[in-house]
Amino acid sequence: MSKVVRFHQTGGPEVMVLEDVAVGEPGPGQVRLRQHAVGLNFIDLYHRSGLYPMALPSGLGMEAAGVVEAVGEGVSTAQVGDRVAYAGGPLGAYAEQRILPADKLVPLPDHLSFEQGASMLLQGLTAWYLLHQTYPLQAGETILFHAAAGGVGLIACQWAKALGATVIGTVSSPAKAELARQHGCDHVLDYSQPGWVAQVRELTGGKGVPVVYDGVGQATFMDSLDCLRQRGLMVSFGNASGAVPAIEPGVLSSKGSLYLTRPTLGHYTGTREALLAGAAALFFAVEQGQIKLAIHQRYPLAEVAKAHEDLAARRTTGSSVLLP
């Protein structure tokens, strides 16, 4: 039996329950994984609350790391004893053990711990596609990255700095501002205070930035458009403050013929080749010291409700993990 977090109706943290589930043996193309650490991400809150609808009852969580315990027929990409991590696939990472498709697994390098593997892959792959695929960042460019002290932000800002960019990061508190400065931000602004858009314009000589990476959503979206230069790209990749409202296309025209995209990780790692390429780039950047991982919160699996409460209330910085 495995302890598994499930929810039978959408709502607040209280809808999550810890259940005993018989895991069984893996089928063709599957593995059974003993999980040592589970990643906590904002998308988990979207699933639990119903913002991203799904069939119920459901497991929760997209990211974890552990050891392969058993492999099913036809599996050639993993074997018993392998250290692996994953970010994506069927929901259900909040568990001691689970069955999942073998092609979703990424070999975990020896220089990374299970906690690092569980905390970095979804956020790190997100940073990878944002900086290398959605808007391929060039040395010498200046970017604006919201929530710079969050899990994705701390990785992305370090990586952007290593690529030669000037990084303007935003945060929501002085404590988070200092953390952002320590992780690649050249300039840190508080998006909860008035005047930050004018500061972005001032820092860019009045031109604005070529790209804004925005995982905050409702609270920053419209102001972010005013930070872009003509024909700049607005990358809206998350909704930490709430969903972005509908926007008329004419707004993009009036603000400088702007571009808008709403990317998601699955569309950038839809093939195993793309998944492994992104993971390899991420692991290399960590090994080279370009990215220093920041795991600041650890919760027992049984305290998952508190973990969600802290994440929703912006009491966390960097990455968080659940420990089965």
UniProtKB/TrEMBL annotation:
Keyword 4Fe-4S: yes or no?
A: no
- What's an example of a GO molecular-function annotation for this chain? quinone reductase (NADPH) activity
Q: Which InterPro entries does the record match to this protein?
A: ADH-like_C, ADH-like_N, ER, GroES-like_sf, NAD(P)-bd_dom_sf, QOR-like, Quin_OxRdtase/zeta-crystal_CS
All copies of the Enoyl reductase (ER) domain together span 11-322
Q: Does the keyword NADP apply?
A: yes
List, alphabetically, the SUPFAM superfamilies matched: GroES-like, NAD(P)-binding Rossmann-fold domains
Q: Which SMART domains match?
A: PKS_ER
Listed A to Z, the keywords are:
NADP, Oxidoreductase
Q: Which GO terms describe its cellular component?
A: cytosol
Residues annotated as signal peptide: none
This protein's name: Quinone oxidoreductase
The species this protein belongs to is Leeia aquatica
